[in-house]
From TrEMBL:
InterPro entries: Thioredoxin-like_sf (IPR036249). The keyword Signal applies. It comes from the Eukaryota. This is Thioredoxin-like fold domain-containing protein. CDD domains: DsbA_family. It comes from Clitoria ternatea (Butterfly pea). PANTHER family: ACR183CP, OS09G0542200 PROTEIN. Residues 1-26 form the signal peptide.
């Protein structure tokens, strides 16, 4: 009799736990904040109405993403506050260690959002340390250790303990999963992908260089400036 009761209790406990964990895994969609890292403007929220919004989907260990960053950065510097960049991550399954490298960006962004793009540039520069044939024999633990080291270099050594903690904390894992899911939900299946004001940048069949960005963005910025004259202000008032 007593045994049966214990068994029943166990069953109920397992049932409750099963429900709890099922609910917990689905819990993080939608996320509390929009996915993405804002370039050069981490603290203030950008005014979507006033700027052309470029959304870039990068994999930090993807060579094509790496090659597309300098011309985009140059274009952003040219346009200043007329253009905003929101960077999303899509860790691709065929780039070794892309998930942990993407997670490192969330780790850094949580600790000091001014260091997110410096880390991205670091990862781009040393991609071959983390991906490809020469890393196949390395354990996952040693890759994480290496990425923690890099992250510490970018953030400063006083952050070491917070970084280690952040890599074992589920928050950053969930943030990285959300990045993946967000990209998938937007129909992004490779990197780099770019959206401009919500529309997919047409594929021009080659990496988009500085001049190509100018060709796409110049008319949009000009059109936005046009709406800022007196007449249209009256119109909106
Ligand atoms: C955050 O990162 C930026 C860029 O690397 C650096 O200049 C700044 O000192 C950092 N702030 C803190 C509090 O660590």
């Amino acid at each position: 009799m007593v045994l049966l009761t214990v068994e029943r209790r166990m069953k109920i406990l397992f049932l409750v736990l099963a429900i709890f964990f099922t609910a917990a895994t689905a819990d993080y969609i939608p996320p509390p904040r929009l996915d993405g890292f804002v370039y050069n403007n981490p603290s203030s929220s950008f005014a979507l109405q006033d700027t052309v919004l470029i959304e870039a989907y990068f994999d930090p260990l993807c060579p094509d993403s790496r090659d597309s960053w300098p011309p985009l950065k140059q274009a952003l510097q040219h346009y200043g506050s007329s253009v905003s960049l929101l960077l999303h991550l899509l860790p691709l399954p065929y780039h070794d260690n892309a998930f942990v490298a993407s997670r490192a960006l969330h780790v850094v962004n949580n600790l000091n959002s001014s260091a997110t793009f410096p880390l991205l540039e670091w990862l781009f520069k040393y991609q071959e340390k983390f991906s490809g044939a020469q890393t196949r024999e390395l354990s996952r633990a040693s890759i994480v250790e290496e990425i923690v080291k890099v992250t510490t270099q970018v953030l400063g050594s006083s952050y070491y303990n917070s970084i280690v903690k952040s890599f074992s904390d589920t928050t950053t894992e969930i943030q990285t999963r959300v990045s993946f899911k967000y990209a998938a939900s937007r129909g992004v299946y490779g990197t780099p992908f770019f959206y401009v004001n919500g529309f997919l940048l047409p594929d021009i069949g080659e990496a988009i260089d500085y001049n190509a960005w100018r060709k796409v963005i110049d008319p949009l910025v000009a059109a936005n400036k046009g709406t800022k004259n007196e007449d249209s202000i009256h119109f909106f008032l």
